[in-house]
Amino acid sequence: MRLSNATLGDLPEGITRPTYDRSALTPGIVHIGLGNFHRAHQSWYLHRLMQQGLAQDWAILGAGVRPHDRAQREKLLAQDCLTTLIELDPSGKSAEVVGSMIGYVPIEEGNAPLIAQMADPAIRIVSLTVTEGGYFLDPVTKGFDAAHPDIRHDAANPDRPRTAFGAMVAALRLRRERGIGPFTGQCCDNLQGNGAILRQTVVSLARLSDPDLADWIDANCTFPNSMVDCIVPATGPKELALVRDLGIEDEVPVTHENFRQWVIEDDFCAGRPDWDRVGATFSDRVHDFEVMKIRILNAGHQVIANPGEVLSVETISGCMAHPLIRALFDKVEREEIAPHVQPVPGMTPGAYVDLIARRFSNPAIVDTTRRVAFDGSSRHTGFLLPILRDALAAGTPVEGLALAEATWARMCEGTREDGSAIAPNDPFWDDRVQAARAARTRPRAWLEQAQIYGDLKDAPRFAEAFERWLALIRAEGMAAAIRRYVEG
């Protein structure tokens, strides 16, 4: 049955559907970046509130700024912006249709429709999932990259911006001029201090063209930090077949694990939905929650995905079923990552490692090593290298962290040990391949990528361990190197 408002009442038995009147919903949120994660996470929390008869004036309008977002827009509009969520658990699966999104802003060069929508007084939150690498950060300093061509364009053409942030600045300019007031900018990406990073990007971009507006945004808008967590695989033929097997024709279904977490700083200048009524946590300790998650889950993903790619292990659950990769995960997490994580209410670092190991091992979640290994340029700098710096400062072990960097370097050579090619998998793939191939004969060449490692190349304990591990991988293979580390 084709998914639409008209067919909601006729969906197969056992599939949860909206019980609220979608025609009565009014928008309160514009969300930029309508990928799978948003629809399995923020959109779901809002849907659950709506199921209780609440938040009817907080419906979501989707938005995008990239030309290829148009295809996603067309697919969602064709099914009235409904999405089938399929929860995958080893004990079985369940499905529900989420209806909290009610429209999708037209995508045009210059982003005029998006600017107009965000300038509407009804919009009180603008949220984003644009990936960790989408915030125009210098990879070493984490400061604002004012030299990026898109940023330079938006500074010179503030009324016809290319970026989501330029569109936000333009909308806030209109709101200030019209006396409407600010909105909250809500980052939902996996970045430590994600709200502070969003503030930095928006305010810094505004300052390039209108310093007075930048001061107004900084003083009046809020950008709450948050920690978001749910494993959401990419949608491919298997997921499309899965939703068809349920009796639903949905062009953009989403599969997800049976776990969600959302910890949010309660800092919303124009109001917010009561997400805490449906499981979200409002806390002034977001930083501690996000450090635990980013260091143990996200860094752990990189620890296993890079060797998994080299060893032709296709999924994350497959990596956890591989005796050596699982042993690598356990040792690095417990001995080199967990010591640099503080406990949070209800959870110790050790217990969180156990939780993540169970989640990664779920065979019902077909999360590919390729997806997890994507954009190592952002993920290693954001997830692993901060732990490495803390470990070097504290004098704690770094052998496993150095091995993780060596496995990434080996993966970026572009071939697996079985001889198959690794397709480009990084926004800077050509640069990574060039450095990885230079490191075949001179391992230190990999560490000389200043935009990634900065002064870490001059840290003897790390650099020497890295060179040793990469040389061993090259000489004896990935499995031999992992075995050497695991066995001590």
TrEMBL record:
The record's InterPro entries line, in alphabetical order, gives:
6-PGluconate_DH-like_C_sf, 6PGD_dom2, Mannitol_DH, Mannitol_DH/Oxidoreductase, Mannitol_DH_C, Mannitol_DH_N, NAD(P)-bd_dom_sf
Residues forming the Mannitol dehydrogenase N-terminal domain are 28-276
The superkingdom of the source organism is Bacteria
Q: Which residues form the Mannitol dehydrogenase C-terminal domain?
A: 286-468
- One MF term from GO for this chain? oxidoreductase activity, acting on the CH-OH group of donors, NAD or NADP as acceptor
Alphabetically sorted, this entry's keywords are: Oxidoreductase
Task: Please name one Pfam family that this protein belongs to.
Answer: Mannitol_dh
This one is known as Mannitol 2-dehydrogenase
